[in-house]
């Protein structure tokens, strides 16, 4: 659908894609669907907005285990995970780039946090919402709650 290869869909590309896939929607319905995908209201749909919209809702048990992992990392309890929170929680000593001297301890922490940080707002701070967002993506590919919970317990030593 991304005819101009901008890695986003504008309204025209979206409308064309809707019709190309044989969906019979009115102009108003197309506009409403587009608005639901365009989370930031900038007139385009990027890949992250697309994924956020189509992801299934997580069960409460998944949300609870994600919150436990977040709280474990948020040592200061201020609702935001920073490099300082990771000290004593995340062991960098076995990271290959730390071992070979390419990265400092703080660089390893920063790169690790970057995984959870919002793709559109890289600020080195991870909020609970950003952390849940990350795991919502992981969750979408795991069918069973029990497997997801086991994976989280193992990964975060909960």
UniProtKB/TrEMBL annotation:
SUPFAM superfamilies assigned to the protein according to its UniProt record, in alphabetical order: EF-hand (SSF47473)
Stretch forming the signal peptide: none
Keywords associated with the record: Calcium, Metal-binding, Repeat
Classification via SMART domains: EFh
Pfam family, one: EF-hand_5
InterPro entries in the record: Ca-bind, EF-hand-dom_pair, EF_Hand_1_Ca_BS, EF_hand_dom
Limits of the EF-hand domain: 1-24, 25-60, 61-96
PROSITE patterns: EF_HAND_1 (PS00018), EF_HAND_2 (PS50222)
Domain of life, per lineage: Eukaryota
Coiled coil: none
Protein known as: Calcyphosin-like protein-like
Organism per entry: Saccoglossus kowalevskii
């Amino acid at each position: 659908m991304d005819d101009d290869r901008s890695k986003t869909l504008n309204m025209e590309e979206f409308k064309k894609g809707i019709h190309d896939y044989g969906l019979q929607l009115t102009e108003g319905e197309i506009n409403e669907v587009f608005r639901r995908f365009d989370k930031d209201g900038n007139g385009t749909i990027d890949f992250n907005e697309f994924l956020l919209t189509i992801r299934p809702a997580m069960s409460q048990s998944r949300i609870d285990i994600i919150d436990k992992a977040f709280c474990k990392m948020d040592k200061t309890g201020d609702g935001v995970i920073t490099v300082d929170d990771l000290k004593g929680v995340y062991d960098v000593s076995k990271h290959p780039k730390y071992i070979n001297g390419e990265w400092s301890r703080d660089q390893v922490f920063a790169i690790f946090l970057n995984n959870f940080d919002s793709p559109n707002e890289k600020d080195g701070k991870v909020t609970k919402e950003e952390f849940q967002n990350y795991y919502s993506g992981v969750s979408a590919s795991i069918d069973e709650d029990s497997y997801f919970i086991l994976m989280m317990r193992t990964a975060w030593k909960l």
